[in-house]
TrEMBL record:
Pfam families: Glycos_transf_2. This is Dolichol-phosphate mannosyltransferase. Residues 14-148 form the Glycosyltransferase 2-like domain. It comes from Proteiniphilum acetatigenes. Keywords: Cell membrane, Glycosyltransferase, Lipopolysaccharide biosynthesis, Membrane, Transferase, Transmembrane, Transmembrane helix. InterPro entries: Glyco_trans_2-like (IPR001173), Glycosyltransferase_2 (IPR050256), Nucleotide-diphossugar_trans (IPR029044).
Length: 247
């Protein structure tokens, strides 16, 4: 069991939800998360990370957390992007397992149970979006980016852009973080000699709000970040302590 350093240590599973200007989705997301927590495979809590939202997201998050005892939040000082929000959430998680999903409701928290059933045997279980509901152009961009990433990293993962993942928290805390890191979570777990499993999950069209991604951060960003990963792979350090007298 993870050492308790905040309220997430009272739970076995923490769901991190990075939020940037998603006010229109938050109340519906709250209801879906509340329903999921009643029958999560492990006792679970929710950790919103407000990434410097400029709309009413923060006020709604605070309101949601006030009426739900298993809901918590962090507010970042300024917008830092998805990788920064995810790192902040992981740094403040002390449950055994940590997962994340986007706030746009294009994935369903109910599918976390599909990932959690296998998490004890893998360091990360990642979703693959079945029957994607995005536009043809968005799907094409994703297909190109995923293909290029697989060629560069050899991680054999079909869909790293799927915003539904579960990890062992201790493995997640050892991930070297950088801008764009969220695209490489399975590959970065593999650097630790960890095991990766892929599982089909459902996907839905966005019903409210607008996407924060465009051509530059779907294609140009991953192209550059692949070189950062290749550099890191050659220099990554793994070690295992055989003995100590620190107790």
């Amino acid at each position: 069991m993870s050492e308790k350093e905040n309220s997430t240590g009272d739970y076995r599973f923490t769901i991190i939800i990075p939020v940037y200007n998603e006010e229109e989705n938050l109340y519906t997301l709250e209801e879906k998360l509340r329903q999921f927590l009643t029958h999560s495979f492990f006792q679970a809590c929710v950790l919103f990370v407000d990434d410097g939202s400029k709309d009413d997201s923060l006020r709604r998050i605070q309101e949601i957390c006030a009426r739900n005892p298993s809901f918590f939040y962090l507010r970042l000082e300024k917008n830092g992007g998805l990788s920064a929000a995810l790192k902040a959430g992981i740094d403040h998680t002390f449950s055994d397992y940590v997962g994340y999903m986007d706030a746009d409701l294009q994935t369903d928290p109910e599918d976390f149970n599909l990932l959690l059933r296998d998490i004890e045997g893998y360091e990360i279980v990642t979703g693959i979006r079945a029957n994607r509901k995005d536009s043809f152009f968005k799907n094409l961009q994703s297909k190109i980016a995923n293909g290029y990433r697989r060629m560069m990293t050899h991680d054999r993962v079909s869909d790293t852009g799927c915003p539904l993942k579960v990890m062992h928290t201790n493995a997640a805390k050892r991930i070297p973080f950088f801008n764009g890191m969220h695209r490489f979570l399975p590959a970065l777990i593999l650097l630790q000699n960890g095991k990766v499993k892929q599982t089909l999950v459902r996907h839905y069209p966005r019903l409210a709000g607008t996407s924060k991604y465009h051509l530059r951060n779907r294609l140009y960003g991953p192209f550059i970040d692949c070189f950062a990963y290749r550099w890191m792979k050659k220099r990554y350090i793994n070690y295992h302590v055989h003995e100590n007298n620190l107790d």
